[in-house]
Structures are given as C-alpha cells and as structure tokens.
Specification:
By secondary structure, the chain is mainly beta. The chain has two domains: 16-270, Thrombin, subunit H, CATH 2.40.10.120; 278-379, Jelly Rolls (Sandwich), CATH 2.60.120.380. Helix content is 10%, strand content 39%. The protein has three helices and 27 strands. The chain has helices at residues 2-22, 250-259, 265-270, and strands at residues 43-44, 46-47, 54-59, 62-71, 74-77, 88-92, 99-108, 129-133, 152-157, 162-165, 171-174, 181-190, 194-199, 203-204, 213-216, 219-227, 241-245, 281-282, 288-289, 300-306, 309-315, 322-328, 333-338, 343-348, 350-353, 359-364, 371-379. The strands form six sheets. A six-stranded antiparallel barrel has the order 9-12-13-17-16-15. A hairpin with a 2-residue loop joins strand 15 and strand 16 (219-227). The longest helix has 21 residues, at 2-22. It is elongated and about 65 Å long. Mean pLDDT is 82; it is low at 8-41.
Length: 381
C-alpha cells in the first residue's frame, strides 16, 4: 500500500511538471517552429536608446525575459518569467556593461495560473508581476497608464534577434542580441485584462521578450504575456501579441508593495482582505468526509475538483504522525485546520499533522479555473 501511495505522489508530481513544461509562453522554447534557447527578444526591429528603464532579467546569471523599472526600485514583468523566484536579478543598458541589481522579493498576481498545453496559445490572464530590487538603479522609472483604443505603439525587449530557416527547413531563433530593441506596431483590440497589438512586419516580439513593455506615447500600457495567433516569430507572419494591461492593476500593485517584506509573499497576496482572488463559494456548509480511493484511511488518497466552488473536506483522524500532500493541475491550494482547533496553515501544498484528531481542509483555486486536486497522505517515516 505504501508503494501505491508513493506511486500516486510520483504520478501527481509528474503531472505538475508536465503542466509546467507544456505551458508554452513567450519565454519558453518555441513548439512547432524550432526551439529558442536563452533570451529571445525582438526579431528584426532596431536598437533603441530612448527608454533606459527597459532592462532585462537574469536568472542564474543568464539573460532571460525583459522588465521595466516603474518605481525607484520596483520592476514590472510577466508572472510566467518568475515562476522560479530564486537567483533573479535586473539588468539595464547593454548586457555586456554588467549593470545589475539583485531582486529582493517577487510578487506575482495571485490570479495568474500557467496555461495548460495548447500549442503555445494558452490564455494566461493576470500574467503580471512586480519585483522589488535590493538597490535602486541610477535610471528614471517609466510611468504607467491605460492603453489607447487604437493607434501606434512600441514593443521592446532584449536578446536573440534573428529567426531563420535552417537546413531542415525549420525556423530557428538564433543570434545573441545584447541590446534593447524596439518594433513599431498598433493596437488591434483589448479586453478587461489584455491589450492586443500587431507589429509592422519589419520585426516581431519573440521568446524572451516576455515581460517587456508595450509603450504608447512614452507610457507603459502593458507587459508581454503570449501569442494571440500562431506562435511564430517570423516578422512576415505579423502574429498578434497579448500584453497584460497595467491599468486596473492598482490593487495588485498596492498589495505587492505591502507584501514585499512578508515571510511568504504569495500567501500575503492571497489574503481575502486584499480582494485579489475570485471569491469562491463553499460547496456546502458542512465538510465532506473523505473516503480514500485506496487504503485504510491511514494511507490513502482522493481526487477532488475545484474551481468556482471551494471544496470543504474532513480528513480522517490519523493514528500516526502523517504528511498530507495536495497536488494541483493549476493554482489550487489548501487551508488546513485541526477540527475544533487552530489553523495549521494557509495556501499549503503539503502539511504535517499529528494523530488523534480529524482535520478540516478547504481546497480553493484563486483563479477560479476548474482543476483536479489529488489529496494524498501517508505516515511520516
């Protein structure tokens, strides 16, 4: 039975890894048209010195994604660029100049969840993040504002700047662009969260431009999230790109700055009083008693589906010290409370519980997106 639980845990873990790998975004390798490595920003375009606040992110010392200084020590970027929050720095100017500032804290919008696999076109709303730097760079931040309903805009980014057909006939992003580049375009539409732009055919945002700004009249109006059409970096394809709008994000920006110094920034941003999550309603007024799919209750697992509804569960009273795992396909997390006692924690993916009492669990999804959650438990060794 213990091996069955280990298999269950291993399978659930693998599902999470596959979901992360399959969530093709502007910072990842391109699917059908060849893989880009490292940072892969504006293909074509032109060198641009007008916006020194637009810089690049470094992850483990390698340039990857783009960001914009919007306050003295605060950088705007895409949430999918900072899923791994370790080893991030912000650089500005030419990459070879080595101007860097370490990132102290990362705040991603709590309603962001990586998209499932969909040929690189998965919608990933609220794909926005703020980074607090350890020190303020000696450059002027850029203002933010609402996007125009139409008219000219600029897309900016760092990194690989060529996209050519190889001997096998496959398009590949290549080169090692080391400077900020821009490309002219126009707004072609928007919704409540995104503004969509199409570029002029002399250049195209590409992988690694993620998090880079869409600029209108010198103001940042969005940050690059994803392809809208076919995921192609060929300038001639004139693929439309989706930028997360910065207007309407005031509550998130305020909450981020309030949570930067919290021990757990993500948990701080998810607090209900901040009203950043979709309010989920309870599936029932009473917890659903969990009957394990396998096992005798001391070693077991169960699958639940969450989305717009919170799932209230009551775990069995364990006779041994036990570890409980929560594996989600998306952004679901769990609040765990000892029945009749104190909370053990909020927004958990794993928790250790002591024997002798039942535990109440609220499984919830901040994004409201329906997803499968596996709850598995086994005695601690």
């Amino acid at each position: 039975m213990e091996s069955a639980i280990r298999d269950r845990v291993r399978i659930a873990s693998r599902l999470l890894v596959l979901a992360a790998v399959a969530a093709v975004s502007c910072a990842e390798a391109e699917g059908g048209e060849g893989a880009a490595s490292g940072a892969s920003p504006v293909v074509g375009g032109r060198a641009d010195t007008r916006f020194p606040a637009v810089g690049y992110l470094l992850r483990d010392g390698k340039a990857s994604c783009t960001g914009t200084l919007v306050e003295a020590n605060v950088v705007l970027t895409a949430a999918h660029c900072v899923r791994d929050t370790s080893g991030i720095a912000f650089g500005w100017g030419g990459v070879e100049e080595g101007n860097r500032a370490r990132v102290r804290a990362v705040a991603s919008h709590p309603r962001y969840a990586p998209p499932r696999a969909n040929d690189g076109m998965g919608v990933q709303n609220f794909d926005i993040a703020l980074l607090e730097l350890v020190s303020a760079p000696p450059i002027e931040p850029m203002p933010m504002g609402p996007p125009p309903r139409s008219g000219p805009v600029l897309g900016l980014g760092y990194g690989t700047d060529t996209y050519e057909r190889d001997d096998a006939g496959t398009y590949q992003a290549s080169g090692a662009g080391r400077e900020r580049k821009s490309i002219e375009g126009a707004v072609i539409g928007m919704n409540a969260v995104e503004v969509h732009a199409r570029f002029d055919g002399t250049g195209q945002p590409c992988y690694g431009d993620s998090g880079g700004p869409l600029v209108a009249n010198g103001i940042v109006v969005g940050t690059l999230s994803r392809f809208v059409g076919t995921p192609s970096c060929r300038p001639a394809s004139r693929t439309s790109m989706a930028y997360t709008r910065v207007d309407g994000m005031t509550a998130f920006f305020d909450a981020s700055k309030a949570c930067f110094r919290a021990e757990d920034v993500d948990a701080c941003l998810r607090e209900e009083r901040r009203s950043l999550c979709v309010p989920a309603r309870a599936a029932s007024s009473f917890p659903q008693h969990v009957a394990p799919m396998t096992g005798d209750g001391q070693r077991g697992s169960v699958d639940v589906t969450v989305g717009a509804l919170r799932r209230l569960l009551r775990l069995p009273a364990f006779t041994e010290s036990t570890t409980v795992y929560f594996f989600a396909q998306g952004d679901a997390r769990a609040d765990v409370t000892r029945a009749g006692g104190p909370a053990l924690g909020f927004d958990l993916t794993t928790v250790d519980v002591e024997p002798g009492a039942a535990h109440d669990v609220v499984v919830k999804s901040c994004s409201g997106e329906q997803q499968l959650v596996t709850v598995a438990w086994q005695p601690r060794s």
